[in-house]
Design a protein that fits this description.
The chain is mainly β. Helices cover 0% and strands 53% of the residues. It has no helices and 12 strands.
């Protein structure tokens, strides 16, 4: 068992640098860091509906499904890196991951059938279309 007491845990990311696991909690919007079985630390930032977590260059990025955006967690809070066109249902982007070279993000704009490659400054560097509803991993 990884841990108990989390509030609707959903997406997660294993962090090999320190052996922790980051977990998005849909119930309260926190990102939990599981540092050992049963030992949970909650990050101070709140992301309403975390649907994907990635680390690029030491920065943690979180897909905020409800607000159709990707945010970077910072020491003082968070900043929006990429804002997508939201849909009324709130079923927006679904998952993100780091690119294989570790320099950017793979962002599925799920309701619009598009996968985006995005640099850490939020610039779309490549766009792939023709998907029905892509989801990240």
């Amino acid at each position: 068992m990884l841990s108990t007491g989390m509030n609707v845990p959903d997406d997660l990311l294993y962090v090999p640098d320190d052996g922790s696991v980051l977990v998005g909690e849909h119930g309260d919007g926190h990102i939990a860091r599981v540092v050992a079985p049963g030992k949970v630390q909650r990050l101070p930032q709140v992301v309403p509906e975390a649907e994907g977590i990635a680390i690029v260059g030491g920065t943690t990025y979180v897909a905020d499904q409800f607000n159709a955006r990707v945010v970077a967690l910072t020491d003082t809070g968070m900043r929006t890196v990429l804002q997508l066109q939201p849909v009324a249902s709130g079923e927006n982007l679904d998952g993100i991951s780091a690119t294989t070279d570790g320099t950017g993000l793979v962002v599925p704009d799920s309701p619009h059938g598009v996968v985006l490659l995005v640099d850490t400054g939020g610039h779309v560097t490549k766009r792939f279309t023709g998907f029905s509803r892509p989801a990240g991993s």
